[in-house]
Each structure stands twice: as C-alpha cells, then as structure tokens.
Write a structure and sequence with these properties.
heterodimer, A: 495 residues, alpha/beta, Rossmann fold, 2 domains, six-stranded parallel beta sheet, B: 216 residues, seven-stranded mixed beta sheet, four-stranded mixed beta sheet, 23% helix, globular, 4Fe-4S (chain A)
C-alpha cells in the first residue's frame, strides 16, 4: 500500500491524539450519527433486506471460490468488447503499468474518479514522480488533495473536516491548482459544491486521460460499473479519449443479473439513498460509427495481497466487501478515533481486518489493528454482505499472538509470535495452569477474597497498560465455589 | 512467469482446500416491493423522482411539444442538444438553436449549450431512477452530462418498471448505460446530501401518457 503510511505508530498511540482533538470528535460524531439514522430508514424500506444480504454474501462467496475461472472469463469478455487487460501482482507493478499507459498517450495530466484501489497502491505519488499530475475530482478527494491531507473514510475521505475547514482549504489552495475559489466564499455546502464545480470544470473539459476504479466487474459480459453521486465519475468515464481502470480482482460478479442484488444494497448501505444519483456501466469500447466515450480502454487487474487474503480460510470473507462504509459509520471505535489512526486507506472495522491481511502483520500498525475494536458486533449487523468482522478480528489476534502459517506474496511462511504480547501469553499460560489445578485455584481464590480490601485499582508492571483503560473486576467476598458448597446453590434459601 | 500466470496460480493454490460452492444461489428476495396497479407504479415513480429533487411534469402525447417548448422557454435556453433519433415534432416549435449530437463536438463546445432533451430506455419506480442506454433518442452519454439542464421524456406506463431487478432485465449490458436518480448531488460535506455538483443541476422529467395533465 501507499508509502504515506510507512512508519505509522500502533493504533493506540495514533488514536490517543485523535481522541483528544475535540473538533475532530465533533465532526465525526455529527457525520456518523447523521448517516446512521438515515441508513436504518433506507434499509427498513425494503422488506427483503435479509434475503438480499444473504444473496449478496452467497454471490461473493461463490465468485471467490471460483475466482480463477471468473478472472479468465472476465479477461475474455473485456477483450472481446475492445478493452485491453493487464495483470498487476502488486502495487509497484500496477503503478508501472498505469504510468507507462499514460506516457504512451503523451499526456502529463489525468483526471481521476475516486478509487480505493488507486489510493491503496499510491498511484498519484507514483505518477507525480514521473511528471504526471493526477487531479482528484470527487469532492471529498479534492478536499483531501488540496489540504495535503490523508483520507479518513472510505466513502467520504474528508469526513474529518467540517464545512468551515473546507471553506478555508478551498479559499487558500484552489488557486495553486487551477481556478481559484470565488471571492467571498462562505461555508454553506451548496456554495462549496459550486466552487468545486467551477474549479474542476476546465480540467474535465480538457482531459485526455481518465483513471478510475470500479465497484463491480461482470465476468459474463465484461461490463464495469461505477456508482457515484456527483457526476465527476461520468465526466472521467466519458469525456477522455483514454480510460484506465484499476480494479481489485475480488470486484467480480459472475452475471449481469447479480447486479440486481448489489445495486439495491450498496446505495442504501453507503449514502442511505434508495439509489445514488449516477451509476455508469460500460463494456469495452463502442465502435467508431456510434462512438460514445473513450476510444481506448485499459483494465488493470490488481492482486496486491488479495490472493494472500484468499488463502486464509477465515479471513477471506473480507474480500466480499463492496466498500459501502456502513461499518465505519456505526463503529464506536471509529467514531472516536477517526480514520487516520488506522494507518491505511481502509479505516474502520473493515480496515482493521483488511489492512493486516493485504499488508501482513509485520508492521507495528498492522499488528495492532485487529485490536482496534471492542468486538461489539455492530459492524457485522450492518454489513450488506454479512462479513463477520468480529470473527476475523479474533482470528487475526490469534495469529498475531501465536504466529503460525500464513501466505505472503503467494508463498507459505510461518509467522513467529509477536514480541509485544509476552505478558499476555504468560497470563494465559498461568490461567491454564490454575484452571487445570483445582486445589491451587481454590487456595488462590480464597486468598484473593480475603485480601480484597488491599487490591490496587491499577495493575503494576506490564499490566499497567491493560488496566490504564479498564476497570479491574471487583473480587467477591467469597469465591463462587465456596458459596455453592455452603448454600447448595442457594437451595437452602441462604445467600 | 508473467503476472497473469502468477496471480492465477496464487488463486488456485489459495483455494486448493476450499470446499465447493456450487449450490445455486437462493434468489428468494423480492422481484418487486409491494403490490401496485400500473397507475400506482407511475405515481410512485413521480414521487420518488421528486423526492430526489427532479422536477416532474405530466402530459399527453399531443401536449408534449408544447410542454417541451414551454420548459425550454422558462429556462431561457438559447440552445438545446438534440439526439439524432428524437422525434422531430417534439421540438418543432422550439425557438432555441438545435445542436446535433456529433462525434466531432468537443467537450468545450458542449459546455456552451444550455439544455438537452432526450428520451430514456427504462424508468424504475421504486428508486426514482431513469436509465439511458445511448439509443438514438438519447444520444451519447456526454450530451446529458455537460449541459446544466436535462429534460428527459419517459413514456408511461410502457417504459416504467417497478424495481431494480425488473429494470436490469430490460437493459442490454453491451450498451453504455447511465442510471440517473435526481440531479447530481454530493454527501461529501458532513455526510449530508447537497444537490448540484458536476452533472446537470436541473433535471426535469416529463411523464408522457394518457394520464392527467399538468405538473405535479
């Protein structure tokens, strides 16, 4: 993934700063609570939500199970429709392919549709290094790009900014990139949207190369689908002469009909709308007589850790994700820590299971992400493809602590247990010994009960970090087993 | 080994132990939500279009040219993009300069045009969506994108379906499709919907049929 995130501190350190930022907390609370209520209403409107969710899950599981077959079918149908298919095993290869394709057009600037895949690979930075300027055209991406900032939400990357901050960024930075913001710009959302319209218009009209991702790719027809709101997607997909789409290999659905499920569940889950304002679908290129849109279409199929994720029996369900971001909006941890603390373009609950699988758990931030959750399960409840995020989180915690066999870049490797969890392992070993030695357990429990007045509120030594954010459970005056023996389980009416 | 072979090989190794997933997918979700008469479906389309800030008008076949003339005049449109297959009499009385949809037009030229009038391929009532498929009465995708004012004519009830599944059934994936649900909008500022970004900021939908007359 993007080098921007190298050297990120572990989640708890990164989150500590965010949690102390009252403006950020206010912005996040306002935005997530607004969308939460709306999503719930949009979902209640369709009485068959449970069936749609189950069908979405099944379609994705089936696709992933036969992914090799569907990838080959997709390649064939895209090629037959006049598109050119490229395969990229990792970020560097994808960036190299796209850079080469842009250079071949002779252009030095491109317009971009919001795309998680191109953020994941750090495409903009790679293009910049080769003298090609990429203009982000989604409003939130524009705010992030102009503010020299990092995205903090899958759907609304500038969710951490409020309208006043956005106004300031536009007024200060737009002139550096092209048409300046109008004089006297206020912070009303309509005026801010208008400023973005004016600023980007000239870029759309002169663009020769567009770069996009895709929400879905249909294997049987070779059709790509982009779901959006603003019309910047339509601009990038139709006005340029060359279109380059970089898409993760897991974005396939087998048939055209399968879209009937996701085009119902995605908009309601993401922006809480019955339908998003614009959805574009295209199949290769059209012939010259009725030419509509780009005359050259390249599809770059991206692996970059997806096949490694696929190799994990429990973790592979993360590849069902359709990037709706409903799990972010309901997450109590995300609401307080914000997206930046996750150290990845994929923040929130889905990021906590996706990033450590795509990138491995080698870095401090990735090893800490499976712990960035209270396991409350709200994410699983709202997920339109029923990804059991808590299950994967626990699975990844186990992997971090115990190590074991994983797949990295297609090869099986054995992970060593993480260093930082020595105290946890020691505690678990001690617990196992105690629970298998009833006499010792009884003696220990009685001692604990008798000494309870002297118990500290926080643990000493390595336990300090654990009890720094948790209350120690109070020890009862009498161990349960003693109470049971004395009262025969309360049958004597004695308490 | 090239990357294609490398990726496909990784996929196959990753799935070597995976159990089969070949049971047919249970599509026990609904084909449409609720029971409605044809008239009620059209009514729902109008409601949902309006809910997402499209301006809805209704008229009969005979009234259509007058309605289009009036809407363009009210907008003050000096020029209007016309797809090649639009019935000529629809815009017979229009004062605005007609601009044909041509492959050679540059985006800058299209940006000078005030309005566009098109038909549509299908309209979906439950979601308030109109779908364009580039047929001769709709033209290239860009002509309904660059001008700031789009008037879309929907034949009711013939072009109206209830639901997304029914809509997809009627569409040809080989054609470039544009699904439109209200004018362009964004939720990017504080996750609240604001209309009017890059696409046409005014979307007017004319429902043409034997139904009642006048704007709703």
């Amino acid at each position: 993934m993007s080098g921007t995130y190298l050297g990120m501190p572990a989640f708890p350190e990164a989150a500590r700063e965010a949690v102390g930022d009252t403006t950020l907390r206010g912005n996040l609370r306002h935005a997530t609570h607004t969308i939460r209520a709306k999503r719930a209403k949009a979902v209640t409107e369709v009485s068959d939500w449970a069936e749609l969710r189950e069908a979405g899950k099944r379609i994705k599981d089936h696709t992933l199970r036969y992914l090799d077959r569907y990838l080959e079918q997709l390649e064939e149908s895209v090629t037959a429709a006049g598109g050119i298919v490229h395969w990229a095993a990792d970020a560097a290869e994808a960036n190299e392919i796209v850079t080469r394709l842009v250079k071949a057009t002779g252009e030095t600037e491109v317009v971009k549709v919001k795309s998680m895949a191109t953020q994941e690979i750090g495409l903009n930075e790679a293009l910049e290094a080769e003298g090609i300027r990429a203009y982000e055209t989604d409003l939130a991406e524009l705010i992030v790009q102009l503010g020299k900032d990092r995205p903090s939400h899958i759907l609304v990357p500038a969710i951490h900014r409020n309208r006043g901050e956005i106004r300031d960024i536009f007024a200060r930075e737009m002139g550096e990139w092209g048409r300046p913001a109008p004089e006297g710009l206020t912070d009303t959302p309509a005026e801010l949207a208008e400023a973005a319209r004016l600023h980007l218009r000239e870029k759309f009209l002169r663009a020769k190369v567009g770069i996009s991702g895709a929400n879905f790719m249909v294997a049987e027809t070779g059709t790509l689908v982009v779901v959006e709101s603003e019309g910047n997607g339509r601009m990038c997909l139709t006005l340029p002469e060359t279109l380059i789409s970089v898409v993760g290999i897991e974005k396939i659905v087998p048939t055209w009909r399968d879209l009937e499920v996701f085009l119902q569940t995605l908009p309601r889950s993401s922006t809480a709308e019955r339908m998003n304002p614009y959805t574009s679908t295209w199949t290769g290129t059209t012939d010259s007589e009725t030419a509509d849109g780009p005359s050259t279409f390249h599809l770059v199929l991206l692996d970059n850790g997806r096949t490694d994720t696929l190799a994990d029996e429990v973790g592979r369900q993360a590849l069902r994700c359709i990037r709706c971001s409903a799990c972010l909006n309901v997450c109590p941890v995300y609401e307080r820590a914000g997206g930046h603390a996750y150290g990845s373009v994929y923040p929130g609950p889905i990021g906590a299971i996706l990033s450590p699988q795509l990138r491995g758990t080698g870095s401090e931030i990735d090893a800490s992400l499976p712990y960035a959750s209270s396991l409350c399960g709200a994410c699983y409840d709202v997920c339109p493809v029923a990804i059991d995020i808590p299950e994967v989180l626990v699975h990844l915690r186990e992997r971090v602590v115990q190590g074991g066999e994983v797949t990295r870049e297609g090869n099986k490797v054995v992970l060593r247990p993480a260093k930082g969890h020595a105290a946890e392992r020691a505690a678990m070993r001690a617990a196992r010994w105690a629970f298998t030695h009833p006499g010792a357990l009884r003696t220990g429990q009685r001692a604990a009960s008798r000494s309870r007045r002297f118990h500290p509120r926080t643990l000493p030594g390595p336990g300090r970090a654990w009890s720094g954010t948790r209350d120690l459970p109070p020890v009862p005056a009498e161990p349960f087993r003693d109470w049971w023996q004395r009262t025969r389980g309360g049958k004597d009416g004695d308490r | 080994m090239n990357s294609r072979e490398r990726i496909l090989g990784r996929v196959r190794r990753a799935l070597a132990d995976a159990p089969a997933e070949d049971e047919p997918i249970a599509r026990d979700y609904l084909r449409e939500h609720g029971q409605r008469t044809v008239a009620e479906t059209v009514e729902l389309l109008a409601e949902n279009l309006a809910d997402y800030r499209a301006v809805v008008h209704r008229c009969t076949d005979e009234e259509l040219p007058d309605v289009l003339t009036r809407l363009l005049a009210e907008r003050g449109a000096r020029s209007v993009l016309v797809p090649p297959g639009l019935p000529p009499h629809w815009l017979g009385a229009v004062d605005a300069t007609r601009v044909p949809d041509r492959a050679v037009s540059t985006p800058h030229e299209l940006d000078q045009v005030d309005s566009v009038v098109t038909g549509c391929a299908v309209a979906i009532a439950e979601t308030g969506t109109i779908v364009l498929d580039g047929s001769p009465d709709q033209g290239r995708r860009r002509i309904t994108l660059v001008p700031d004012h789009h008037i879309c004519v929907v034949r009711v009830p013939g072009q109206v379906v209830s639901s997304v599944p029914q809509g997809l059934e009627r569409l040809d994936p080989a054609r470039p499709l544009t699904w439109i649900s209200g004018p362009s909008a964004t939720s990017d500022i504080e996750l609240d919907r604001v209309e009017g970004v890059h696409g046409p900021r005014t979307l007017e939908v004319v429902l043409v049929g034997q139904g009642r007359t006048g704007a709703t």
